[in-house]
Automatic annotation (TrEMBL):
FAD binds at residues 51, 115, 144-146, 314, 320-323. Residues 4-329 form the FAD/NAD(P)-binding domain. The keyword Flavoprotein applies. This is Dihydrolipoyl dehydrogenase. It catalyses: N(6)-[(R)-dihydrolipoyl]-L-lysyl-[protein] + NAD(+) = N(6)-[(R)-lipoyl]-L-lysyl-[protein] + NADH + H(+). The keyword Repeat does not apply. The active site is a redox-active disulfide bond. Disulfide bonds join 42-47. NCBIfam families: lipoamide_DH.
Length: 467
């Protein structure tokens, strides 16, 4: 019977990063993974394949709509969806193979099968053929991630009614697609199929898309997506989906109640959120406590109520983001090695990988108002940025929020080309407790999109130069 310092159940971004860090710190480490490949939802059927499809669809759309303006004459592009899907799979394979390499490099044992916590220090692994074995360890980290949130009364078949998994495997471009949920996943995948030719309608229960994000961001981003061809039905809910041969009748009602309408669709994408994945883990029998939303309860050091059992990532409280899970994985590995692992939850960037991208870090205006915090705002539009004009990428803006008295930056929000990369200079600034003046007085190269970040910061403590 193997004896480990640490066994990590799940090899998504949180799990595999935790295992690697633990091994680097000298702990004898193993991982348990039920899939044939490592990387979890993110690398196999989530973040990575969706980004490959987003990039491919953006290139397809750009070649058919933007090249001529730049003096590039090409024939009308033709879509080869099977080749696009094959490229997506190559990207996935390269990433998951990379994780396998890192396991070997760091001498981490990989056990394929379904993991179950038998109690303190024991993990049962059941392989596909039904054979079980028990592993012994000093510590266990639960990093099993999350699963698709079901829509009551609507059964996902991954053919006509799909989750994000099925939406990345469609064999042809749908004529009409209804996206249930105006969050990150729905908007990313909806934009993919819209660019490839589908008529996309987004049905969102709330009165805005990207619910938790800054109100200004939601409004302008919705206008941009509408200009790109997406339609929206806000403050609305899907109450039923009826199959009519190859087509679907989608019943939509006002969220507050009222008359229903029926939308026609070829594909319905259900993307109303995700839930912690703890099925079959044996948490109840092991005495591990969970909350009313099925999340594993932990203390400030990621420890559950059972000694030697920890949890990170989507199965615990907090944003369901791969990089949040990664940082928690590093922190818990450091704690187990006797170090002071820590995650600053006030500086967790969030990105929507559409075109243009949306990125945020820290507080929104709505959150600051609700907390009664006096703040100042600086805003700068990309339409006044030289590099954005040169790239025909003038949609969007940068918004910086800072404490009215101390000038410490409390949040930043960007809609624009490359927003997901630009947000990190604000994240670093916030990690060091920097002010808007620190950011605005930092020299930025010209011409770059990032100059808009500097100008927005200048708008907090002084005035922007170029607007």
């Amino acid at each position: 019977m193997a004896q480990y310092d640490l066994i990590v159940i799940g090899t998504g971004p949180g799990g595999y990063v935790c295992a690697i860090k633990a091994a680097q710190l000298g702990l004898k480490t193993a991982v348990v993974e039920k899939r044939a490949t490592l990387g979890g939802t993110c690398l196999n059927i989530g973040c990575i394949p969706s980004k490959a499809m987003l990039h491919s669809s953006e290139m397809f759309h750009e070649s058919g709509h933007s090249f001529e303006k730049m003096g590039i004459k090409v024939a009308k592009p033709k879509l080869d969806l099977s080749a696009m899907m094959a490229n997506k799979q190559e990207v996935v394979d390269a990433n998951v193979n990379g994780i396998s390499f890192l396991m070997k490099k760091n001498k981490i044992d990989v056990h394929h099968g379904t993991g179950k916590v038998l109690g303190q220090g024991k993990v049962e692994v059941t392989s596909e053929d039904g054979k079980s074995s028990t592993l012994e360890t000093k510590n266990i980290v639960i990093a099993t991630g999350s699963d698709v949130m079901p829509l009551p009364g609507v059964e996902v078949d991954e053919k006509q009614i799909v989750s994000s998994t099925g939406a990345l495997e469609l064999e042809k471009v749908p004529g009409k697609m209804v996206v249930v949920g105006g969050g990150v996943i729905g908007l990313e995948l909806g934009s993919v199929w819209s660019r490839l030719g589908a008529e996309v309608t987004v049905v969102e229960f709330m009165d805005k898309i990207l619910g938790p994000m800054d109100g200004d961001v939601s409004k302008q981003f919705q206008r941009i997506l509408k200009k790109q061809g997406l339609e929206f039905k806000l403050s609305s809910k899907v109450t039923g989906v009826e199959k009519k041969g190859k087509s679907l009748n989608v019943t939509v009602e006002p969220a507050a109640g009222g008359d229903a309408e029926v939308l026609q669709a070829d594909i319905v994408l259900v993307s109303i959120g995700r839930k912690p994945y703890t099925e079959g883990l044996g948490l109840d029998a092991a005495g591990v406590a969970t909350d009313d939303r099925g999340r594993v309860k932990i203390d400030a050091h990621y420890k559950t109520n059972v000694d030697g059992i920890y949890a990170i990532g989507d199965v615990v409280v907090g944003p369901m983001l791969a990089h949040k899970a990664e940082d928690e994985g590093v922190a818990v590995a450091e704690i187990l090695a006797g170090q002071a692992g820590h995650v600053n939850y006030d500086v967790i960037p969030n990105v929507v990988y559409t075109q243009p991208e949306v990125a945020s870090v820290g507080k929104t205006e709505e959150e600051l108002k609700a907390a009664g915090i006096n703040y100042k705002t600086g805003k700068f539009a990309f339409s006044a940025n030289g590099r954005a004009r040169a790239m025909n990428a003038t949609d969007g803006f940068v918004k910086v929020l800072a404490d009215a008295e101390t000038d410490r930056v409390l949040g930043a929000h960007i809609v624009g080309f490359g927003a997901g990369d630009m947000i990190h200079e604000v994240a670093v600034l916030m990690e060091f407790g920097g002010s808007s003046e620190d950011l605005g007085r930092t020299c930025h190269a010209h011409p770059t999109m990032s100059e808009a970040v500097k100008e927005a910061a200048m708008g907090v403590f002084a005035k922007p130069i170029h607007s």
